Structure formats: structure tokens, C-alpha cells
Amino acid sequence: MSYDVVVIGAGSVGTPAAFYLAREGLKVLVIDRLPSPGQGSNKAAIGGVRATHSEPAKIRLGLRTIEILSRFAEEFGYDVEWRPGGYVFVAYRPEEEKTLKELVAVQRSFGLDIRWCDADELLRIVPDLNPVGLRGGTYSPGDGHCSPLLLNHAYYELAKGAGAEFRFGEEVEGVEVRAGRVQAVRTNKGVYPTALLLNAAGAWAAKIGKLLGVEHPVYPDCHEAGITEPVAHFLDPMIVDIRPGPGSANCYFHQLATGQIAFCITPEPPILGEDRRETSVFLPQVAKRIVQVVPRLAGIRVRRTWRGLYPMTPDGLPLVGFAEEVKGYLVAIGLCGQGVMLGPALGELLSRLVTNKTKPGDQIVLEKLSPSRSFQAQEVLR
Questions:
Q1: From CA 343, how far away is CA 152, in angstroms rounded?
Q2: Rounded to the nearest 5°, which phi and psi values hold at 171?
Q3: CA nearest 83: which of 265, 254, 339, 294?
Q4: Per the confidence metrics, is the pTM higher than 0.90?
Q5: Helices then strands, each counted (H, E), the chain
Q6: Minimal CA–CA distance to 244: which of 211, 274, 273, 266?
Q7: What is the crossing angle of helices 360-368 and 339-354, to 10°?
Q8: Quick one: CA dihedral 61, 67, 69, 74, positive or negative?
Q9: 3-state class of 272 per DSSP?
Q10: CA distance 192 to 45
Q11: Rounded distance between C-alpha atoms, residue 49 and residue 65, angstroms
């Protein structure tokens, strides 16, 4: 049996893409080496969804994802725990104040609802912030958060309902290419003829590229996260502190719809590799940072921690589009830990690209995220 599209990866990008492609009437097969959808990096995400980026392509995708999620329950009938609580980037030093104020002008020019708030205004929005040394921060009320697992499962059910097939527990071992064009995908359990392969393999995307002789500058970066006991709701926005600290470049945390506080840091220097075992270093490190920002959290109990993989790129931007080296090879990789916040919009974009129904704005995104681009600038809010 042949397929119009074979998608590798049933995660934050591959599963929504499968739904939108199948909804267009294409015969879609999704292959994942893990036993069920969302078992790679998706289940390690803490669910933040923002359009508050410093790069216009990601801003466009973020805004579209927020539109999709805000109507998801009404349109599709699934509660994915979407909550538009906003994002707050705090500034306790002149360096962060300068960076955030400069970004606001750029972000607003691309349609973001975001503003700089002085310390007094920010404390009215988040009364539990530490007021000592607080200079202010940015507030983007349209951003929010959802459950990554519920969202991925919803797209899985929607994709199956639209006719997509899923095969789990299958390892991709090769891709048949003839005359420079994709012909079939070979796994440890079968061969699946197709003229179009979508690589959405997340942290393992570079390994898929090598099967076609294509080098992708995507490397896994280990990040740890954790979650507390549930408490009465008191915190609406995701709080982000971009100050560097010992062993970390930033920290961020928010309160889930179910009451728990989910939290994470970005390690500095990066911890490269695929080791997903949690460490004894993380919790003392992140606890100190979080309590500095919101002292009220000092007494809360942590339930568990875990480790996931961020598929990073040299400039902090995804690789999206057709590869030049092999015809019929499409990639949506290197999401840099932002698959949940960009995946729904990317799924729509990929379906339009495959069916030749792209819109004028799509070309702006595709040019900026081209897999063959040069990696020069750095995305500020990675």
C-alpha cells in the first residue's frame, strides 16, 4: 500500500501535521519508534504557548497557534486546558530592562499585544512577584498555556478520524531514493511506498536526515523540568526570568489549570546529548531561582522532576520546508523546545505547502525558516 505522505514522528509537530494533511484528503501514515503518540519530547513540555518572540516568522506562527487553541474546544470538541493567562518577562537588572524594552517595539510592530509595565503596574498584574529590585517587565495578555499531552492526544484522535494511519514501535531504518527522489520508507517492520516524506522527528531528526545523506544542524539539548503539588489558583501568567544564574541562562514557571506549578530552566552551558535521566542538581538550582522571583512559593512541595530534549539549531529557529538535496523530502524540525507553541500552526502551514495552497504570509515564514538558510542572527527569546 502506498501513501501520499509518510510522517516520521507522532509528537508536537507530526501529529497536528498528520491531521491537517489527512483533512485535505491525503493518505497519511505516521511512524513513531515509541509505543504511543507524544512519548518523545512532547510529554516533557510544560505547556507554555506564546507569540512573544523576537523573530517575525515565529511571531506569526505563535499568533496562529493561539488562535487555534482559543477555539479548539468549540471547533473540535476537546478540552486541552487552554488558559490565556499571558506571559510576564521580569526585569530586576538594567540589562534585562534594556533588552525587553527594545524588543517591545519590534514585537508590537508585528501585531503583538504586549507592553512594558513599570514595577507598580507589574505588581498589580502579579501581586506575588518579589518587589525588591523589580524594575518592571513586559506583559503579553494573549499568550497562555495548555496541556501538551491533551493537545497531542486530541490531534491524534482527530488525525485518525480524518483517515490518517499510525504505526508505533517501528524504527525507521532507511529511505529509498531513486533518481534523487523519495520512493519509500523502510522500517524494522515493513516498507511503505511514498513520494513525500515529512521529517518531524524532533530531537532525533538529524538521524533521519542522515538516512537520506542530508546533514541537519539539529542537536538535542537536555532540559529538566518539574511540577509541584496542586494549590489554590493565584498565578495567571507564565513568569520568565531571563537573568543568567549559576548553571542556568533563565528560568520560567506557571500555574496549570489543575493548580500545580510547572517549572523549568535553560542550562548554561548547554547539556548536549540524549540522556533523559533527571539529576540531583536541578531541583536545588531551580528552586532558588523561582523563590527569588515569587517568595510565596518557598513552602510548596515538589511532586516530581523529569528531563526532556530540546532539538536546537544554531540560530534558535526551526527548519521548515523542502530540502534541496532530495526531492519529496520535507522537514519541520529544530523547534528548540517550542513544538507545542508552534506545532498547530506549523501543521496547517505544512498542509498548505504540500497541497499548493500557500497564502502570501506563508512565504515570509518559509523563507525565514528555510532549511538551506545561513545561520547568522540569533533569536533573542529562544
A1: 10
A2: -95, 125
A3: 254
A4: yes
A5: 10, 19
A6: 266
A7: 120
A8: negative
A9: strand
A10: 31
A11: 8
| CA distances for 150 relative to 154, 190, 252, angstroms | 6, 30, 21
Q: What is the pLDDT of residue 375?
A: 86
* Degrees, nearest 5: CA angle 95-295-280: 85
Give me the helices (H) in the chain, please: 14-23, 56-70, 72-76, 94-109, 119-125, 148-161, 205-211, 282-293, 339-354, 360-368
Place of cell 499548493: 356
Distances in Å between the Cα of 343 and the Cα atoms of 14, 100, 204, 269, 338 are 8, 26, 17, 27, 8
Query: Distance between CA atoms of 300 and 85, rounded to whole angstroms?
Result: 21
Q: Which three cell numbers stand for residue 298?
A: 518557598
Q: Which three cell numbers stand for residue 12?
A: 508536537
Amino acid 238: pLDDT: 98
DSSP 237-256: SEEEE---BTTEEEEEEEE-
Question: Is-contact 268 249, C-beta < 8 A?
Answer: yes
Q: Please give the pLDDT value at position 110.
A: 87
Give pLDDT, residue 382. 64
Cell of 334: 529544530
Q: What is the CA radius of gyration of the chain?
A: 20
CA-to-CA separations, 21 to 14, 24, 162, in angstroms, rounded = 10, 5, 9
pLDDT averages per 10-residue partition of the chain, 382 residues:
96 98 98 96 96 93 98 98 97 97 92 96 98 98 97 98 98 98 98 98 97 96 97 98 95 96 96 94 96 97 97 96 98 97 98 96 95 82 68
- Compute CA distances 298 → 228, 240, 288, whole Å: 11, 17, 9
The C-alpha cell at 22 is: 489527512
Say which residues have a Cβ less than 8 Å from residue 346's Cβ, sequence separation at least 6: 13, 16, 17, 61, 318, 320, 332
Report the distance separating Cα 40 and Cα 155, nearest Å.
16
Bridge partners, residue 241, by sequence: 90, 251
Q: How high is the pLDDT of residue 1?
A: 82
- The pLDDT value recorded for residue 130 is 98
